[in-house]
Records
---
Amino acid sequence: MNVERGGAWHPLVELALARLREFVREPEAVFWAFIFPILMSVTLAIAFPGGGNKPVLVAVEPGAGAERIRDALQHASGVTIRDVGTGNEARALREGDIHLLIVPTTPPTYRFDPAREESRVARLVVDDALKRAAGRTDPWAARENPVQVPGSRYVDWLIPGIVGLNIMGTSMWGIGFAIVQSRMRKLLKRLVASPMLKREYLLAQVGGRLVLLAPEAGVPLVFGVLVLGLPVRGSIAATSIVCLVGALAFGGIGLLLASRARTFEAISGLMNMTMVPMWVLSGVFFSSSNFPQAVQPLIHALPLTALVDALRNVVLDGAGLAAVSRELAVLAGWGLGGFAIALRIFRWT
Amino acid sequence: MSGVHCTNLIKRYGDLVAVDRLSFQVARGECFGLLGPNGAGKTTTIEILEGLVEPDGGEVQILGMTWRGHDRELRQRIGVQLQETQLAEKLTVEETLRLFRSFYHRGRTIDELLRLVELESKRRSWVGKLSGGQRQRLAVACALAGAPDLLFLDEPTTGLDPQSRRQLWQLLAQFRSQGGTILLTTHYMDEAETLCDRVAIVDHGKVMAEGSPRELIATLGAPRVVTHQGTLEDVFVALTGRHLRDE
């Protein structure tokens, strides 16, 4: 309680509380912030169950010799034969129902898309099995020593990406929509008619959301640890700080995008224009090193790349904050820059 | 010392001259009404005086100060109710008042404000659940949160039922009895006659007539008031014409 303010807290606190209250009283917003990452994680858990030994999916075109090929592959490990029905082979290949189609010519013909990694693997596995069945003798058989290293699976690599994605999405949408709504309702105009400090309003929009950061980042991480066996090698403190700096960065960008927009259509367009390229470029689902060398500096300057890289380093490799200082600096730059520009160009009336 | 002093205010929006060399003064402790049909420039004028719209020309002094250089101090000392503001629907009445009260260095407590506008029983209701009259009272309570010396009200009773209007009038009378100055805009002549010491009838961004309601009625002259007692509405229609003003 504060006597000078008639029982109200500091304006920064009241503004942040107002933001937080409005958010938690909006059921849809809560869904997107908390339920969505859980759904995403569950989907991933189903798509990537424990071990990485997924069989290759193949089909054999009917014809003379097709039976012999089927017999040979039946006994090969790691190969699953699918019956896709005559005439459907091309479609099955295209849609990924099968990775490779075997045409029973002599020697056999493999039909596959070499751009697909699964198809290239399928070609090697099938070719090996068929040659062996045809009587090839191997000079030696290498001893295999399969190891399941936690932290090196795709799903382990993916989860920090999902956390970063969630921090970006909830920070930007949460801040952007709330501001545009207040602008449309002329609430911003009413607020600047009062002695409220503009910077405190903007700061509170970002700050009011930080309370939600713990569940937003924590839910997918805890799910990953408990259900998918994600190893967290870094300290909780370092992980939290990376998430916090990331949320501040996207908060600043969210303010900037919302600083002029007058309609939901306008802010949605700006948000998508900003976020969709990062979904692709920032290495959330596949490594950003797939992109040409020339654009790498640009990719590494993106805030989502910085956040996801920093999270992977800390969570998977146990890096300390010093090791991710470059990423933290990139994030801080985006956050402070976004905030400073937003404050200058913000449309209040 | 004057509460509001503006001279030769000009505001253009493209080709449209919304405010055209408009001047008037409001003395401390006075209630002054800006009357005019839709699109006359009332809202633009009051928003210039509130420091929300930058005029293209003219001078403004509020409580003896200009907006340039005294923004912080003036904001602490004026109360504002805007025409179209919708307060956050999912905050309660009390939370909304706390938010606005937190911006001011002085003023009533939250409880006092709730009592003042008779919203104590709605303290924990969401703003979205309030009636039009209750919302308007809340808007006025927000304007009064910092115990202002000067209150700006833009069509404070538009759309309210007679009970709510009268209750608001009472609230404003109370504010004046404590030395407060009011500048309001209204469509309602009875409201102006009841509340205002002086009014300015505005059309096309200009002051058409200015004076106390009684003085203005007197200017109508004898021939026009043979059938009934002259009212401010007669003056208004005489000055601004009978054609409809649809926005």
Note: Chain A is about 60% helix and 5% strand.
---
Amino acid sequence: MDTVITTDKLTKKFGAFVAASELTFEVGKGEIFGFLGANGAGKTTAMRMLCGLLAPTSGKATIAGFDIYTQTERIKRSIGYMSQKFSLYDDLTVSENIRFYGGIYGMTRPAIRTKTATLLEELGLQSEANTLVRELPLGWKQKLSFSVSIVHDPGIVFLDEPTGGVDPVTRRQFWDLIYAAADRGVTVFVTTHYMDEAEYCNRVSIMVDGVIAALDSPANLREHYGRASMEDVFYELARNAKRKGD
Amino acid sequence: MRQLLTFIRKEFLHVFRDRKTLLMLFGLPIAQIVLFGFALSNEIKDSRIALVDYSKDAVTTRLIGKIEASHYFDIQHSLASAGQLNTAFRRGDIKMAIIFPANFGDDLIHTGKATLQVIADGSDPNQATTITNYLGSIVADYNAELAQDAHQPLQISPEVQMLYNPELRGAPNFVPGVMALVLMLVCTMMTSVAIVREKELGTMEILLVSPFKPIYIIISKLTPNLLISVVNLIIILVLSDIFLGLPVKGSIALLVFCSILFILTSLSIGLLLSINAKTQQAAMMGSLMGMMLPTMLLTGFLFPIENMPVVLQVLSNLVPSRWYFIIVKRVMLKGLGFTAVWKETLILAGMCLFLFAISLRNFKIRLQ
């Protein structure tokens, strides 16, 4: 399997505070990689470094084969990003949002038009193309948000707690979209607080106090820690964390 | 380039979708012009006065005719005796009373001297001073006429002429002030809110992760505001020409150039505010409190800067609208050219560059 994300002792310090310490892992192409950790464990810092939003203090990393120190512009073209905050414009319509995000990634007009049609069909939103996003139910917004984050067909997509505040049914549907993307070869790097979602991932890493405390498939982790569910595995690892919240 | 156009298009959509804000943007200058141009004028028209004429001769009749003819006074009562004046003053019916003593005309013609009594309501000192001055000038005017008729030895009387604004109207001073105020407010508020909104929404992160250049974000945010401000400028200039009779006397090109410079300065301030503000409300309050008050107080259109304490005088140098106000007054009202305003223009340009450079630098720092 090709690796699309490699990090080697990636570290970020804010003054004396080590937010992320010597992170070393690899993520393969088309893999769904879960990135777990309690609040304040350093997930967001790690993700921000990988996205090029934050410069690492030390260590090495490549995203889609590009170096995160010197080739951030190339990286930006190869990744998609969806934040935990809702990232569509409320006062624009569904198709205007798609057009905007396609546009800032430099897609041509015809390409955007074709993509818009496919996306709307996939999401079953054809009749809502000209509806303002603020009028859509939250679950639809979330799904649209995900589709928009991969509108430019990136090799890797980073999802930062994408399902916060969404009902279980919509969460399942959301994960169907993630699986569909992964089947097309998109690598999905996802942070979440829902342990049932952790079970959906191919592999999971659990961060505690800025370091990766465990990294394996959910099944192996359960076996290794002798627990019945990921929930218990997570609790076992995270309960001794010294950092609380952020 | 295509990316930039996409973004600018989106910004215009935001502006046009928000009808309320749009209405406010264009309503503000119109309301301000009407308020400052018409309502808040410091000239006093049609002051109600009372007349008591004990003399009733040719001289008083002519003088009263002159007073009646001026639009400053509205003669409410012609009272038979001064005894009734007190009541009229108390009730607030009149602001001033003029009493011609008996034999007023005779005295004037035979002795060359006559005295009339003027009583004004001093509870509003500014108004009292102004209207007694008006009356003084009418009397002086009449004096001069008499002197001419009588072929008496030459009398020296000062002839005061108010340049640029002979009738001492309020509008010529207020319009440049309104221009400075409106442009400053619209630019800083719109810009600061536009950028902070992206932060609040979480879309800023998405934009920063995308290959879209940060400088493009700034350009796209500023473009609609620049355009709206130019439209506002045109509205103000047209309104003041048509309704206030204040055409642009100097070069329109120069005025527009300086205005755009001022607009860009204000946009940079908005940019700077938005970088430091965390919420839209904070940005809004920052631009209202931080910009409106200094602009109103330290520009010089409400209170003369020369009369302020030295500290405020020094501070006022930092307010961009102060310099813009001077430029507009010189170019628009006096019709002066670039040689008269180059210093102020240079100061504005300097402020603009400085503010834009800082905000650009800080905007980039946020990415790292």
Note: The mean pLDDT of chain A is 88.
---
Amino acid sequence: MATAMRLSRAEHERLARGFRWRRYLLAYLFIAPSMFFLLLVLLIPSLWVVYLSFHKGGILEPVRFVGLANWQTIFKDRVALLAIRNTLLYMLMAIPTVFAIGLGLALLLKRIILGNTFFKAVLYFPTLTPYVMAALIWTFIIHPEFGVLNVLLRLSGFNPLNWLSPDLALVTIAMLEVWRGVGFWTLLFLAALISLPEELYQAAKVDGASSVSQFWHITLPLLRPTFAFAVVMATIWNFQVFDSIIILTDGGPNYSTASVAWYVYKQTFTFSNVGVGAAMSVLMLLAILVLTLVQLRLLRRRW
Amino acid sequence: MTTVAPARTRGQVAEIRRAAERAHLRRRLLWWALAYSVLIVAGVAAILPFLYVVSLSLKHTESLIEYPPRWIPIPPYYGNYAAIIHHDLFLRWFLNTLIVASSVTVIKLVIDPMAGYAFAKMDFPFKESLFMLSLSMLMIPLAATLIPMYLLVRGLGFQNTYPGLILPGLAAPMGIFLLRTFMEQLPKDLENAARLDGASEPYIFARIILPLCKPALVTLAIFTFLTQWVAFVWPLVIAPDPNMFLLTTGLSSFKAQYRVDWGLVAAGMVLVLLPTAVAFVLFMRQFIAGSLAGALKQ
Amino acid sequence: MARVEIVEVSKRYKSVLAVNNVSLDVRDQEFLVLLGPSGCGKSTLLKMVAGLEEITSGEVYIDDRLVNYVAPKDRDVAMVFQNYALYPHMTVFDNLSFPLRMAGEKKDIIKSKVAEVARILGLDGLLDRRPEQLSGGQRQRVALGRAIIRQPKVYLMDEPLSNLDALLRVQTREELLRLHKRVGGTVIYVTHDQVEAMTMGDRIVVMRDGIVHQVGEPQAVYNQPANTFVATFIGSPAMSLFDGQLQSEHGTLVFAATGFCIPLPGRLRQAALALLGGDRRVTLGVRNEHVQLFSVPEPAAIEARTLLIEPVGSDMYVRLAIGDQECLARTEPRSDLQEGAPVWVRFMLDKLHLFDAAGRNVLAPAATTPAPTSTAAVLA
């Protein structure tokens, strides 16, 4: 029987270190390129933008420290405040709508076999279009004379609407997003629904539960994690609404469609107020962060 | 023992059962009818705008102003397509978009599996923290980093260049996450056997593990390519030179003009959407998997 | 020469000690079996010898060469995995030739070596197929071939037969042994199947919870289990154990349990005497083939009650209740026993095993024998 070890602990540690670090080095080399870009494109800029929010200049004039001046500007600027209000309003309009329609369609698709793939493809197609294209398409749809919407209104006996009026413009942007996004969320919810165990529904049916009751007591609670994720993702994406606004309304009329991202763009690239744009960007980051954390906590604890 | 005399004749029982079956069938049919109508309405709502665009693209611009609008133009007018293709810059935009999207995809297909492999199969200090850090970057919106990125890229002299357009696309944590999850499911004994057989770590990565990751790689490729194909904000900001427009920024520039040639725009859109549509039909499952990738795995 | 020395090797995962201070000497050309229930650390130990797991503390020597910090490919070992780990996108030929290709061997040498290994293992016609086209048994042979082709010093096998069906397992067992004789090399073989261990091993190492409970030749371990864990783990059906007390009656030492008592044979006297001064609780063990049954009262036989009779063709297993404890006896098929009826039982005294209060065999040196439930390694 072999007895004691032949090398001292110190010698072992020395050898082990060399052996281990050779392996660690290789691992670091493997992650280096990816990490490099992540740091360069995401991490550092998000820190830098905070720095910028306390400074002025950068494009036209040299950078100089101005403390809270940019932040004061934002909270005093009527347009900025409108932008925040509009963004939140837009999210409140678009997200619940697209979820409701998406879930409804998903429930239907779950039971339909004939034409299932066809419908999935058709519904999903708008999601594949670039926002820009969707926006351009919608300039046709909302056309006062030949736009599909107004044509339908006229055929039903109503008066045509000006979809880009100060009252309706934001609604139009929301509708655009609903049209574009429904397919994606439908498929997401469908995948989640399919993963629910069929036995639960069978047991419920045997126990005499109606379809509505099944939905309320089985489907919804089990979909909670999917909803949690969906809401978080939808919030992050929709908070950044920009493309459709720039194409359709450019923030108007009367700033009724000014969004936070649009404001950042305008301040930075049209007015060269880099600092102000940066401040708004930081606000955006914080808002998304807070919203995400709040939602995660709420949805995880309630049930 | 006495037997209970049947309260109804056999014929009556059968009649009752048939009636119940008919009622049941009627209810099912009603449900199917309702379901399909809803789906058809939704489907039409989703697809109709595209068909409208196609029909627009085949019309001469003057005829756009007619009312009631004619749906199927007869005869179809191909002039728009001709004009688009001969438009000096359209093909250039197409090429630009192709170059940018392909480059980002190819580069990511190399560096993301490498990182995924390290996170999945190797051990090193701060492994979990670095991974969590990458994942948390998913939350950072492009708009928030727009300004610093602009200053950086411009400062490096990459404004209006391909590298400038490509750079931000290389930093999506989704790829690392996807590949790591997939590789973790591959049996550990496989790499162990290779290590014992004398293969070096890079060899194991490239020739043993990677070939087994095809589904994940395809998903990543489609997801990445598509994201780049539809990118708008960044190209708008960093490449204002019309020669360096991508299809998205190029098409949007049409709208900025005073007299918009809608037929032309429509034709342009069809051309842009066509490859997407074709690829979608061919690779539908991977497309859907690609966009849902991050979704369900969280 | 291909000796393997495992010196005070431990493996720690976060707060769990998977392998606890294990020391073993594997002799040249020996077929050593690591046996134990799932999770006992045998596979982890094997992987540490292979270099696939880092050694938390301790040393491993292959032919007097410290291999702790040597990469697996340079240790001159080969491994056969439980799930074979064949490269799925390569043909059988490429799988077999892989180690040689990695070593940079010339093409013609590779070809001839693969041909030879294929011949030995009966894989000749399959060289162009892919693993997915092979049966379980064929895949296993390819895995073996891939290990043999390098002619390593040490073969490490991690439950290679557990994925085969019962019939194939028995066949392959014999083939493996023949292969070992033919090809040579030292083998460390891991299994949880004690039949495999008993039939294949030159020596077996019984492990549980990361420590070694006994090392020895199969028959020796069977005849003299070091503690109650080894006693019940080896031998199927398991040994019957009785709880009781040591008592001194009229100068004789007896094992006393509720309802019966058994005088201890001479060879156990001295060890039992030593226990009288302390904890007198003991466990008596008897294997089922050493229990004699009589349907009528016999001298020196204890009365018991038959609970269950299970005929299995060549034998009959009879479950009995003696006092308030149960026992299993094996006998030839006979018709004089009835379930529920009384039966008279006599244990073959020279085959009795006595274990102390901690579960250790009274005949085993206490200093080096771990208690059955011990999680701490006993230092030699």
Note: Residues 166-183 of chain C form the longest helix (18 residues).
